[in-house]
What does this fold into?
Amino acid sequence: MSLSELWVTLCSDTEDNYPSYVPGWASYGSDYDKNPADLRWDWTRLLPSLKECFKKLDIPITWLIRVDDGPAYDLMLRKFKEEILGLASTGDEIGIHIHTFIWDRKSSRWKQTRNPVREAQIVSRSLEYFREVLGFSPLSVRMGWNAMNNEIMNALNEKRVLVDASAVPGNYCNGKFGRRDNFYDWRRCPKDPYNPSHLDYQSPGSMQILEMPISTAQSIDAKTFGYFVNGLSSFNKSYALKPLLSLGDEVYRRFMSPHSFFYVSPWWSTSVIERIIAAYAEKAINKGVSFLVGCFHSSDILDPERSALNSFFLRKMERIGKIFLALKRVDVVFSTLSQAAEKYMRSGVIKQIA
Ligand SMILES: [Zn+2]
It folds into this structure.
């Protein structure tokens, strides 16, 4: 008898760095607080080490290349075109990661626009930049800050993107970093993949695009701590996280995570991730197949405090890879996001829901 299948997809958002509230990034990362922004892409010199880690584990990665209509535009696509196409040639997928920034003259900063018409325009423009530079259209997308609304989803659908993985079921954020960005609402969406409704991106409907949410755990601890961390980072002078992280840094990294979803970060514990892997393996055993989607930021390969390789992050990735490989009662299938979406649609699960 054949084993149940656990399909596993790891996606990487590829922006340059976090805003300056994360310790170290203010001195080593890009500066998004001016126009034009000062983009350094320092982490990319360590991309070969990151790629080598996944090659050893035999895990294909879905690289979601950062594009927007300011401040990054198509600069990453053009500057790293050869490297990007090189990744695609090894079986990885090249998708798109779109941020909906606008330049705010009043505060003299780039901010997340909350204007749905402008957001849809930025999405369409970013998809055009991608095709113009790389010569093909992306099948997979994850929006910056998990941003979504009906206009964005409709724009992605009209441009025939196959799959979106912006959803983090049960999660909501009303702004971080001085309320500059991170506005999103995924409180009502299903945990399983679905074709969204034209009228409500959080409900199943008749769009062609498939929403494949980031896999989540039911974790009240993580949610409560997440609200606390989000609350801290919404202060105007958003350096509040720095003392929190330096106070018993090891304790936080080992045991605490503000995320209830599959997000690999060098700053937080992998305990939630381990629970999610166990739950999805169990689901595969019960249903015959299950689909797990996780994400990370590739810029985390750079330790911003030392401007050096973050071996802590690499070890974390290796550990997670080995947990998957050690699963006994399921057949683990590592795939790209679009391969997982195609498999999901072929499996007929959606028809059963409809
Ligand atoms: Zn992003």
